[in-house]
Specification:
Elements: H1 11-17, H2 27-48, E1 54-64, E2 71-79, H3 86-94, H4 115-127, E3 131-136, E4 143-151, E5 156-165, E6 172-181, H5 191-201, E7 206-211, E8 217-219, H6 242-249, H7 257-264, H8 270-278, H9 295-307, H10 323-330, E9 336-343, E10 347-349, E11 352-363, E12 374-379, E13 382-384, H11 392-398, E14 419-426, H12 444-496, H13 500-542, H14 557-614
Parallel strand pairs: 1-7, 12-14
Antiparallel strand pairs: 1-2, 2-6, 3-4, 3-6, 4-5, 7-8, 9-11, 10-11, 11-14, 12-13
Length: 615
Amino acid sequence: MAKSKITSSSTAEYFAKNLQQVGFSSPTKAVLTTLKEAIDNSMDACEEVGIAPSLIVEVKKVGKGSARNTDLIEVTVEDNGPGLEQEDLSKVFGEYLASSKFGRGRASRGQQGIGISAATTWAQLTNAAGVQVTSKTKKMRKALRGQVDVDIKGNKGLLKNKEMIEWNKPHGTRVSFRIDGRVQLNGDGGILTYLEGTTLVNPHLELSYKLLDNKKVEIKRVSDDVPKVPAATLPHPHTMKLGEFITHSGIYGNITFNKFLKTGFSRVTDSSIKDFVKNGMPKELLKKPLLQVKDVNYKKAFQSIQETPLPNPSTRSVLTVGEESLSKSILRIGAVDFFSVVTRKPKICDHKPVVIEVALARFLDRGNEDGSVQLLRFANRVPLQFDKGSCAITKAVESVNWRAYGLSQSKNSLPSGPYIFAISVVSPFIKFKNASKETIDASDELVEEIRLAVMRAGQKLSRHIKRESKAADLERKIKHIEQFGPILVETLARITKAPVKRKQKAIAGLEKILGRDSNAAEKDLAEADSRLTQLKEKMKARGIGKFVDSSLQEVNEDDVEEVEVKEVTTSKKAKSKTKAKKKAKSKKKVTKKAPAKKATKKKTAKKKATRKKRR
């Protein structure tokens, strides 16, 4: 039997043969993934230096693709970021696992340094040319333009066709990919869905895009506050496997094992190390350099760490959009009838800090009562558009009984209605199910935390729906009375043979009753409108903007209850005053009648006396 030669492959060679693992499994997904990776890189670059991002996006067909049933698509993204130096261009766009954020434990969009290099590889495989890059920093008088290809055998980027050009921007980067693909605009996997989701969770983003032959769309930013991504956090030892634990030690060189435990992990102190020794860690191991530690000792140390209770990691490493910013941003998507925004406090799930944010909105210009709600999922402010069924976010939404909140829902499915459910998960250590980061792993703790956030937002939605149903029920009853009341009066007058005057009085009384109810309703409505205008002024002062009135009704609920109580008390006082007046009048009448009766008695007595004398 002939022996086969064993060869080794580079990282670039592996991903070039397995691009479906990083989102290039179909022509449609290839276009979306390329656009997503380019926008993620631009957003991270801007936020890293505190620049409010302004992006220009264009997707167009420029010819026929090399593969069957594909088009040659050009994807272009331009930003106002800090730009890249010449030596960094080939690393960023042409080298796998070349990232400043790899393994740092930050709640940023890109972390592995795979996505944008995979897009360059896809362009190279389908169009025989990598990415066209134009970059300019503050120090550069002219911009540098060139083509970056991937050296697949050596996992290196190659910068070709370099030239210096005039560019009217002070700094920024422009990338252009020509790839085989097909453009899908709408639906869960559509480009428009991705762009809407990106604008929703990034209120500081200013975006201009042109897709195919459609008109250019410009979306202004609603916040000038650029989010500061918290500093990187160290991993918690309880979140690692044995192999990861050993690999992690290789980063720290030849320091002692004791120093490695304190500097390489979060929540490990001197007292923790004493507890490790009590639970079976060899004490002599602590003074040994890492290069002298054998795998058997690593295993003993790892087992003792897992058996020792440790404090949960810090929640300072997570980033939130915030309820106010999310409220402003949601109004950019369309005409909103109602919205509810909830930001949970950071929690620890599976020994990892996590924060959940939820926005529920009912739109006037999209969706219908019979169709399912549109679920927008986000991980570290990046939309997730594929493999929805196995995602932790989807499972959490489906586990809620939405019928109790006033929405229709089939068993183990999403609720129905013209709503958008936007749910964001932010964590420095999100566990994805695949390298393309399309879905979040559904652990029990994470699903429960998302479920609690969704239920809290659903309670606000439920109150709004109940108020609407009560108002509709009252209107229906009034219409029934207005329709059948006169007929009832006419019939009763005919049966009792009542005169015309009596019939007219009955009709007038009915109108009076309905008029009294309508007057009271108009009075309540006027009071509600006055409060609504006051709240609108407050919202405008905060910069939230305009939206349909029904979205603020729940804020006035307590105030309306107070007004109702005041009205009841004033009406009771009025009734008691009228009763007192009636009693006073009756007393006066009695006092006036009493002397008159005495006078008549005296006259009758005198008459009787005169009659007796005559006899």
